[in-house]
């Protein structure tokens, strides 16, 4: 007579298992707390929201930084959800996140070049400046955060749409008003498509007074963890301070900061690829789109890029 086999009982988690579960739960609660604040939080805010001891919270956030789920720019800076989490969720960067992440690049560009710098994004068919740095000095182009820029006659607009998939580009251009702003403005969709092809080949867009007379701008794409262009970074200033002989040096500084910002957004450049045109020669006088939104003046004109 066969003895019936009793069902095997599930093993109970031991002390190590319990501790592992508790650590996992606490780590997830830290991520949820930071996400609830918009993706950025100081340690004190994490402690307040999770009710964890400060030492425990500090240990957890440091571990999450080591694992690549949080970022921190310095010991005194807040913690921020890292690109690795966004890759898992597929969530795009929000404009506040982008503006904060771009702050070091904008500061560096304005300091290194003595010109204005800005970051713009494309949402649907609208190009919007979301962060900027104005230069010091009496002659400057003053940009406005929240300012809307045309696609067909701004460097940031062209840099943002140049790499769109053809159906999406068709949709964006169908809704664009090709208003002539200056004698250099590209006035037709066909002309713009030709210019976008040149931008894709060289990796950057320039403004030769197409939006505003007397203003020039250079813009490069910023890519995120998906490899798509998520923003455009630019340098803008009066024509008198941005002669064509200065384009190469300005573009080099811009490419360095755009590459650094792209890396912060999780972009990993494929081997052998040079997205930002760092191997392409600068072509002075190209018909491109441009920048700011006003003329330069001795007291600081209103503008954007």
Question: Could you provide a short overview of the structure?
Answer:
The chain is of the alpha+beta class. It contains nine helices and eleven strands.
Structure characteristics:
single chain, 305 residues, alpha+beta, Arc Repressor Mutant, subunit A, Beta-Lactamase, 2 domains, six-stranded antiparallel beta sheet, three-stranded antiparallel beta sheet, 39% helix, 18% strand, elongated
Q: What does the model show?
A:
The structure is a single chain. By secondary structure, the protein is of the alpha+beta class. It folds into two domains: 15-89, Orthogonal Bundle (Arc Repressor Mutant, subunit A), CATH 1.10.10; 95-303, Beta-Lactamase. It has nine helices and eleven strands. Strands 7-5-4-10-9-8 form a six-stranded antiparallel β-sheet, sandwiched between helices. A hairpin with a 6-residue loop joins strand 8 (205-208) and strand 9 (215-223). It is elongated and about 70 Å long. It starts with 14 loop residues before the first helix and ends with a strand. The relative contact order is 0.14. Residues 1-11 and 277-302 have low confidence and may be disordered.
CATH fold category name of the largest domain: Beta-Lactamase
Number of strands: 11
Overall structural class, as computed from helix and strand content, comes to: alpha+beta
Poorly predicted segments: 1-11, 277-302
